[in-house]
Amino acid sequence: MKLVFFACLLIIQLVIRGGAIPSDAYLKMFASQTSVDPCYDEDKASKCIPDFVNAAYGNPVVASSTCGLNGPDRYCDVAQNNEETQCHICDDSNSKRRFPASAMTDLNNPSNVTCWRSETVMPATNINSPPDNVTLTLSLHKKYELTYVSLQFCPKAPKPDSIAIYKSSDYGKTWQPFQFYSSQCRRVYGRPNRATINKSNEQEARCTDAHRHMGEGTSTQGTRIAFSTLEGRPSARDFDSSTVLQDWVTATDIRVIFHRLQMPAELFQQGQANQESNGMTAPVSRTKYTDDSLGSNAIDPPVITVSTSMAITSMVGQHYAVSDFSVGGRCKCNGHASKCITDRDGLLACDCRHNTAGRDCERCKPFHFDRPWGRATSRDANECKVCNCNGHARQCRFNMELFKLSGRVSGGVCMNCRHSTTGRHCHYCKEGYYRDPSKPLNHRKVCKPCDCHPIGSSGKTCNHTSGQCPCKDGVTGLTCNRCARGYQQSRSHIAPCIKIPKVVSMMDTQNTAPDPSQGDPSAPYRTEGGRECEKCKINTKRVNLNKYCKRDYAIMVKVIGRETSTEVSSSEQYTKESQEEMVKFDISIQAIFKRSPPVVGASTTMMKRGPMTWMIPYKDLECRCPKIKINRSYLVLGKDSEAPPGYLGIGPRSIVIEWKDEWYRRMKRFQRRARTCE
Predict the structure, then answer these.
(1) Looking at residue 570, what is its pLDDT?
(2) Domain boundaries, position 551
């Protein structure tokens, strides 16, 4: 970047000193030397910029005044070094006497200078005389980042006194001052001469009289005025980080307005008096007319001898004459393209890389919104990233809040997820579907329909990870398509499975012994299936701070579904000797009020909000210890040692209570008082 910056400064210095615009071969010395793709360094995105060019070359210039368009017109050279002032004829109908505006942006050949000339303008008689307002408008047809604007006047043509340069960044809709030149900056443009630029006014146009100190045009090469867009601007050396200067140098059109060819006589006489007081004298000139009607070298009598070239020009008529209108810069591509090409619409546009799009590579291309668009710098190419939708979406959008929450890594949000998926990355199955574990996440059929039995299930929505449907009482199975153990099918759609009635044998009818549970509420009781049950301590309805402190965890869960299976754990508490039929419940942990830190060396269950499996012995469920219902919420307090690793379990010290809203405030109060626990 520094090499390019100093190269541009060298070019500007050559232009200001009156030299010709450097050739393409010279400019390519500073171009990238990469032979493959300048926008990538070993497949890693890197900043790239188009070549430095004369953006004005070949583009049309619209002039408000051109001599000879309305018939033959006369123009005169400015005499120098005691030479005679020669006058000529301008006629647009004669190819040899035409001076069109296109001559300013054609090939600038010092050996064959082509010029544009304006119509004759009336000399100013006083400072309040109307301005000339001869305008040149150049359209670049694309946004460029400009380094300089240069005007070279025709040989022996008068050098204008007051010039204004404007730029447009929106294709001529609005105009902004770029630079002013005048010997009377404050009188003409209301601005101080050579004002200092600091960081607070870097985007303001300056006015200067520096052009007055440049020599007059020679017989082969005219005077040049060159405006450097970044000269004297403090942030120029850190251009990549200065959005102010990036906007300042951006232009689609350039307009030059010639306000005054020369200042009025009273201002000139003041300057002349100052010159004479310093011992300076003005040259004497003679006027000579070259006209086919008068002869090739006829002298128009009488010969007019005047003290200054300005006076001669005032008498014979004034005009503006420009041989070269140059605009040096680069096609604006924001560091995401190494060249500009003609697009399908015939417009000049950047050949965008880094997954960017637009005429200026000013936005990310579709479906690449996982990070915000940014201008490429030498430190970060700011390549646009594709959204992660797992192949289930074709559109996405950017969310700044999510981008910040991710540590400025990812902010894309997928839109219109297909294949029955949903979520920010289309990574969940939508309602009524569940994930097929046998297929990868990007498979078209990763989500399978729940297919819940219309009679056995209490709803059509299943667990999106396990596929378990919500079953009615006495119904089991993934899709709720069969009766659970101890139940039989009925003909009712409301209760499709009912308990199997108790069969009384002859032995039971002859047994007249009293029921030991009668009169003793603490005595064991029997279920309908004949199982002997103790008093259930799990379903206690009283929880105090002491019980809260003595448990490893306190959580609120919602039961989603259940499935019967035989489970054997390898932990010490669940040995093969304790093998028994277990019931799996699919639950969702909705709140965690307590979670004791794990003991070093112990196998504990990772507990967090979300889906989990609850293991309860079938015999305890028969005894309703605890009594569990689908789609109900429960407060559960327990010990880690009472559960197999990876599951939630029930043990002698567990407490399970059906959830009520008033429990929430009590649990929060226990949380605050938990520091009193031993």
Answers:
(1) 37
(2) 538-676
Long-range contacts formed by 460-464: CB under 8 A, 24+ apart? 460/432, 461/431, 461/432, 462/432, 462/434, 462/561, 463/434, 463/560, 463/561, 463/586, 463/611, 464/428, 464/429, 464/431, 464/433, 464/434, 464/435
Which residue in 638, 619, 539, 542 sits closest to 580, CA to CA? 619
CA dihedral 275, 277, 278, 284 (to 10 degrees): 50
Token pair, residue 116, equals: 């544009």
More confident residue, 34 or 468: 468
pTM to 2 decimals?
0.61
Q: Is there a domain that residue 341 lies in?
A: no
CB 554 within 8 Å of CB 668: no
Q: Is the pLDDT of residue 670 over 60?
A: yes
Instruction: Look up the CATH number of the domain holding residue 216.
Output: 2.60.120.260
At 306 the pLDDT is 34
Per the DSSP assignment, residues forming a β-bridge with 483 are 475
The SS3 call for residue 211 is helix
**pLDDT tens sequence across 69-88:** 988 988 887 766 667 778 88
pLDDT of residue 26: 43
pLDDT band at 226 (very low <50, low <70, confident <90, very high): very high
Burial of 210 (0-12, 13-18, 19+ CB in 10 A): exposed
* Residue found under tokens 């079938």: 618
What average pLDDT does the structure give for the chain?
Answer: 80
pLDDT interval class at 337 (50, 70, 90): very high
CATH number at 622 reads 2.40.50.120
Domain boundary among 330, 349, 370: 330
* Radius of gyration (C-alpha) of the chain in whole angstroms: 45
Token duo for residue 663: 């429990």
Q: Widest CA span of the chain, in angstroms?
A: 159
How far is it, in rounded angstroms, from Cα 406 to Cα 345?
40
Please state, in angstroms and rounded to a whole number, the distance separating the CA atoms of residues 647 and 625: 18
- Looking at the 3D structure of the chain, how many domains does it have? 2
